[in-house]
Specification:
Blueprint: H1 8-15, H2 19-33, H3 40-50, H4 61-68, H5 72-85, H6 88-102, H7 110-122, H8 127-138, H9 151-157, H10 159-191, H11 193-253, H12 260-267, H13 276-290, H14 300-323
Helix pairs in contact: 2-3, 2-4, 2-5, 2-6, 6-7, 6-8, 9-10, 12-14, 13-14
């Protein structure tokens, strides 16, 4: 029978020696992943200790992976299995284990506050019984969880926000003070305006002189660059002439290049004598392999190379179809 339609947790249940142990294992793993300041290795070791007597018969790794993924379908299924199979004594044992793994370090996270209450409701454990069990195991009463919708919660858990608000108020006061100082500076600036105007005129005159000198230096530099460019072009022409002469000598001594039909066949991976049908088949294969759309996720350079290859293939095909 195909197992493609089963989820990872459903497969674990199918292979488990005890489905209720496997379901409890996932719920305890769910509590552990909401423990704060605990490494993954510590979570797995703690889960192994608490469930050492379980008869599930499989590794803890897949269960912890499902717990980390927050797969609510799997958690709901585990809850249904536990609700259906657990007796009153087993329910209290599960709650005992859940409280233990949630409070090893003396603290309980906000998420685990709600998870423990969910498990107690699931297992028909009364709130008073949950509170008594929590008191016995931790030595502290199970207080109501903090409410994230209240301002007091964030004053404790996000003091940076309130520090930012205080800083913003201080910045506003500072801006107001700066605005007043700016007004005073404008009054003083108005008194110095005439002197500044005179100074600007002197600076403007100096700037014109500096600009004239800079222009003369730029013209001199441009002339030197033009002479250097002319010399470079002359050297390039001489080098090109030498290269052209060298190519002519090589062409006289080398065999003649293949004709255009042979080159076009080579582009399509064919040899002389190929039929028109061979040309069509080769073109379809090469076009599919080198079409630029296949390289859209690569770099612009790769796409440009693919476009050039495809154009060579297309040109070779067009020429051969006209020639045959």
């Amino acid at each position: 029978m195909s197992t493609a339609r089963f989820s990872p947790f459903e497969l674990l249940l199918l292979k488990s020696r005890s489905q209720v142990d496997t379901a409890t294992l996932l719920l305890l793993g769910w509590v552990l992943v909401h423990r704060q300041h605990v490494s993954e290795g510590q979570r797995r070791r703690r889960l192994a200790q608490v469930t050492s007597q379980f008869r599930h018969g499989h590794e803890l790794g897949p269960v912890m992976s499902i717990a980390h993924s927050q797969d609510l379908h799997a958690i709901q299924l585990a809850a249904e299995v536990v609700r259906k199979e657990c007796s009153k004594e087993r329910s209290l044992s599960v709650m005992h284990q859940a409280i233990t793994v949630a409070t090893d370090d003396g603290d309980i996270s906000l998420a685990n506050h709600y998870i423990l209450r969910f498990l107690a409701d699931l297992l028909n454990v009364a709130p008073a019984t949950l509170g008594t069990l929590f008191q016995e195991l931790t030595g502290q009463p199970l207080r109501p969880p903090e409410d994230p919708s209240r301002d007091a919660y964030w004053q404790t858990h996000d003091p940076a926000y309130y520090a930012q608000k205080a800083q913003e108020e201080a910045d506003a006061a500072q801006r107001e003070k700066a605005s007043q100082e700016q007004a005073e500076q404008q009054q003083r600036a108005k008194a110095d305006k005439q002197q500044e105007k005179k100074q600007k005129q002197q600076e403007k005159k100096q700037q014109k002189e500096d600009a004239r000198r800079a222009k003369a230096r730029a013209e001199q530099s441009s002339a030197e660059q033009a002479r250097a460019e002319q010399a470079r072009q002359e050297r390039a022409r001489q080098e090109q002439a030498r290269q052209e002469e060298s190519r002519r000598r090589q062409q006289r001594s080398s065999p003649p290049p293949p004709d255009r039909t042979t080159r076009a066949l080579a582009v399509l991976g064919l040899t002389p004598g190929a039929s028109k049908t061979d040309v069509r088949r080769a073109y379809r294969r090469m076009a599919q392999l080198h079409h630029p759309d296949r390289f859209y996720s690569d770099s612009e350079h790769q796409v440009a190379l693919a476009s050039a290859r495809f154009q060579r293939i297309k040109n070779a095909y067009d020429y051969l179809m006209q020639t045959y």
